[in-house]
What we know:
Blueprint: H1 25-41, H2 43-67, H3 73-94, H4 96-104, H5 106-121, H6 127-142, H7 166-197, H8 200-208, H9 213-255, H10 260-270, H11 276-293, H12 296-326, H13 330-344, H14 346-363, H15 370-376
Helix pairs in contact: 2-3, 2-7, 2-9, 2-14, 3-7, 8-9, 9-10, 9-12, 9-14, 10-11, 11-12, 13-14, 14-15
Amino acid sequence: MGEPAQTILPPTADTTPPVRTSAPLSLKVLTALAIGGVLYIGQTLLVPVLVGVFISYALNPLVDWLTRWRVPRTLASMIVVVTVIGSLGWLSYELSDEAFAAVRSVPTVTKRLRGTVEKLTGRGPSVVQELQQAADAVASAADGGQPRRRAGEPMPVAVVEPTIDVKEYVWMGWWSLVAFGGQVLLVTFLTFFMLASGDLYRRKIVRLAGSRLSDRRVTVEILDEVGAQVSRFLLHQVITGATVGVATWLAFWWLGVDYPGLWGLAAGIMNTMPYFGPTVVALAAFVAAFVQFESASQAAIVSLASLTITTLEGMVLTPMLVSRLARMNAVAVFLGLLFWGWLWGVAGMLLAVPLLMAVKAVADRVADLKSLAELLGD
């Protein structure tokens, strides 16, 4: 007998959809931790670089306007940078007298604040103790300057306070000033070179995006949106910050608060931080006014004036305009302020909104980041 015939069945088509592989959750967590560590460790370099980049975005329209009048781009960039530095130098010179006076008054203000706190908390010397100290002083003068000791009272022990090393504090302050000056110099040169280079790095980034036309188109869209949003946002912040600063200066000058110019400058800068900035200014103004006038009602008036100026603009109008500009929800802006403030401190809170704008522009156009874009979107 022959072998049975074998039936060969045609291969069936596999209708099972392919499984899309993705990186494990543990790898994503490790990557996020690594990025956070790099951002934290490199903040000394990253913060000035980001400040320079964002300032160049804000000043680029002025340079473009000068180039349209046939001014060479390098010269136009130099004119804009020198004008900005000169304006900041003039403002610093005008406020230098108030700044030095404020520094000289720190010991006096600290002593008055400590005395006020002791009166409020009841921890200061009582009336009986003050009378006893006065009687001891009179008795000491009668004994030739020697303190009188009562019967059974232990021998007083003189406590020698450790001396303060003034040279060490001066040396530390000098190095802090040198480090700050180095960062300002880095920001200045970086801003100038980016303005003078024009769209050089823009073209390089587009070429590095890939050879496909779709990749390059997405890269151009991201760069355009980041530049437009950051430029408009920083222009808005400069205008509103100057308005809040001038209004605070006039209000505090009218109320008789010491150093109104410094308060106006602080209010204008802190106004760039939604939610937190106006609150900090109002609380600090209340404490300073309470120490100066020794009146809670007067301090409340000063704090209320600060809130009247900054709350409507800094806590209502600015977040609304920022949310519309970047199409981000208020919760995302608030959490972003918390995250970047925790990571980089005050500098992180100042850079939080522009960084969120850049992240949102990238996430809107990258398929793997759609979930992040959904969380940031309005």
